[in-house]
Design a protein that fits this description.
Order of helices and strands: HHHHHHHHHHHHH
Oligomer: single chain
Strand content: under 5%
CATH topology of one domain: Serine Threonine Protein Phosphatase 5, Tetratricopeptide repeat
Number of strands: 0
CATH architecture of one domain: Alpha Horseshoe
CATH superfamily of one domain: Tetratricopeptide repeat domain
CATH class of one domain: Mainly Alpha
Shape: globular
Distance between the termini: 43 Å
Helix content: over 70%
Length: about 260
């Protein structure tokens, strides 16, 4: 059955496997695949003019069914704390898959229903990420400010690092590079006090990017190399390759062709 799943379905299945036994969640995917087969038969009879639009709507409908069933099942089977952690993870999967509207619904529901302040703060960060992707900076910053207040109250260093990292990303998107650098630097201070190596590497990479834009080639390379060392430690070879590329482009921008090729 695994081969017939889309990448998005596989991500949801992998997430469910972290919380539930296989026999508890597998039927979700079998039922949805049967639904999709029937929809494909109908789609084949529609003129080419409308087929593309229909396929998009069918895909969205299948995703909706998948998400709703996964949430319903998890809510029945899991204790409240685990259920909300599951939905946070699901929201992040939706963001990574570009299914922003679904992610927004999930995080909005968590922020309104969870009584756990830490979970609420994480859902607010999810909403801030979504609105920043929509270029709604004011709304995004508002959610970050609310989350930051909760993280400060709980002395959550990783949460604070996430807030300032996102503020840096928003500032960068707005073209305020010096401000972005300041936020990323504050974020790194908090990240160094937490145990999240991946977040630390992301911030180091972001500092590499903004320093490169500002023409601070040496500082940029230092941050890139710090990020690369962490990615090597955690075995994320794709990120290692991306950082190598950034270092190469950095030297190329500085017209240091020899160093660029060596990187």
């Amino acid at each position: 059955m695994q081969d017939s799943l889309t990448i998005f379905e596989s991500e949801i299945q992998n997430l469910l496997s972290e919380y539930l036994a296989k026999n508890e969640y597998e039927k979700i995917f079998i039922d949805v695949n049967h639904h999709q087969m029937g929809s494909s038969d109908i789609s084949a009879r529609i003129s080419d003019l409308y087929k593309k639009q229909l396929e998009i709507k069918i895909d969205e409908s299948a995703d909706r069914i998948q998400i709703d069933r996964a949430i319903t099942l998890a809510e029945k089977k899991l204790e409240s704390d685990k259920f909300y952690h599951f939905t946070l993870d699901l929201g992040n999967i939706c963001i990574a898959a570009g299914k922003i509207n679904f992610a927004q619904e999930i995080f909005s529901r968590i922020s309104k229903k969870s009584n756990d302040k830490n979970i609420k703060a994480k859902s607010l960060i999810g909403l801030a990420d979504i609105y920043s992707r929509k270029a709604n900076w004011t709304r995004g910053i508002s959610f970050i400010t609310e989350a930051e207040s909760i993280f400060k109250e709980n002395n959550d260093r990783m949460g604070l690092a996430t807030c300032f990292n996102l503020l840096g990303s928003i500032s960068g998107e707005m073209g305020e590079i010096e401000r972005a650098k300041s936020y990323f630097s504050q974020s790194l201070v908090f990240a160094n006090e937490s145990s999240d190596q991946e977040l630390n590497a992301k911030i180091e990479t972001n500092l590499g990017v903004v320093n490169s834009i500002l023409g601070n080639t040496d500082d940029s390379v230092i941050h890139y190399e710090s990020a690369m060392m962490i990615y090597k430690q955690i075995g994320d070879l794709r990120r290692v390759a991306e950082v190598y590329l950034n270092i190469g482009l950095n030297f190329l921008d500085a017209r240091d062709i020899k160093s660029s090729l060596a990187a």
